[in-house]
Amino acid sequence: MRAVVVTEYGVLPVVQEVAEPEVAPGSVVLKVEATGLCRSDWHGWMGHDSDIVLPHVPGHELAGTVAAVGAGVDGWQVGDRVTTPFICACGTCEQCLAGNQQVCPNQLQPGFNYWGSFAEYVAIPFAQVNLVRLPDAMDFGTAAGLGCRFATSFRAVRQVGQVQPGETAVVLGCGGVGLSAVMIAAAAGARVIAVDTNPAALELARQYGAAETLTDASELRGVDITFDALGSNELVQQALRALRPRGRHVQIGLLPDGVQLDVGRLIGQELQWLGSHGMPAHAYPEMLELVAAGNLNPAALITRTISLDETPAALAALSHGTPAGVTVITP
């Protein structure tokens, strides 16, 4: 199969022929129909993830058709249209049995722990608890974005942040995660303020329901909840200063360089710092129902579709900023 292969961190990957993944017991192999280009892929390419072993194939948000079914996987067959969370949980540990697959200590992530979806085929471990059947009306490009950015934002806004109608929610960073959060928070009835330095991203944020857009949040005060959807120490500081007493901050973006916190203010104002990491497969039905009903429109987030051959350059270009909207790759 053809795949994007990283041989050195920070060096332009190449598209080359590699062996197709073999189907193992408990797993399936998918023919990748669409996969998203995400900033987390850039972090991996830059060497920010210790789980990656070179040579490596990135890609972790995907949709496709089942190409092979391993022993012990029931209810799935070749040709089924599916997506999967980027966190492939084991399904048997204490956290999984409690429904918290997104923090499974035995999780495997395509594109990080093993070769991912910037390829024609990808393996999905623990398939019984991680496959999500796609509605017939949903195209693969839309479904690919659900596995990381949209599903991650859905859980961050609705389940972790528990945004309520009438609240003011600030989304800092309007890449794919941030724009998803804007759309989902607005649909939940919040007054959304979107923050980004990219005018094109802010225009999309307005289209997706933001009541106000800003290039800087340093003067904001008294808001109910903030989301760092990018991963920046500077944005975290703006987010925490913007909160009212007993406000909530949800951290979605990765912080590879760490962050400084005014712990005294966290304590004195009784602020909440909440982490949010993905969403388990069993939680997808609520999100899919809202999409089917027209309350959410993840397809609108897609602004660019590229080929596998265009992917190395697009990945490297993330070093200079994130393009507005979501980029989907069709292998």
Automatic annotation (TrEMBL):
* Top-rank taxon, per record: Bacteria
Q: What SUPFAM superfamilies does the entry give?
A: GroES-like (SSF50129), NAD(P)-binding Rossmann-fold domains (SSF51735)
EC main class here is oxidoreductase
- One short Pfam family name for this protein? ADH_N
Q: What are its E.C. numbers?
A: 1.1.1.1
Q: Which InterPro entries match?
A: ADH-like_C, ADH-like_N, ADH_Zn_CS, ER, GroES-like_sf, NAD(P)-bd_dom_sf, Zn_alcohol_dh
Keyword Zinc assigned to the entry: answer is: yes
GO MF annotation: an example: zinc ion binding
Which keywords does UniProt give here?
Metal-binding, Oxidoreductase, Zinc
Stretches assigned to the Enoyl reductase (ER) domain: 10-329
Please give the coiled-coil regions recorded for this protein.
Answer: none
User: Which cofactors go with this protein?
Assistant: Zn(2+)
Q: What is this protein called?
A: Alcohol dehydrogenase
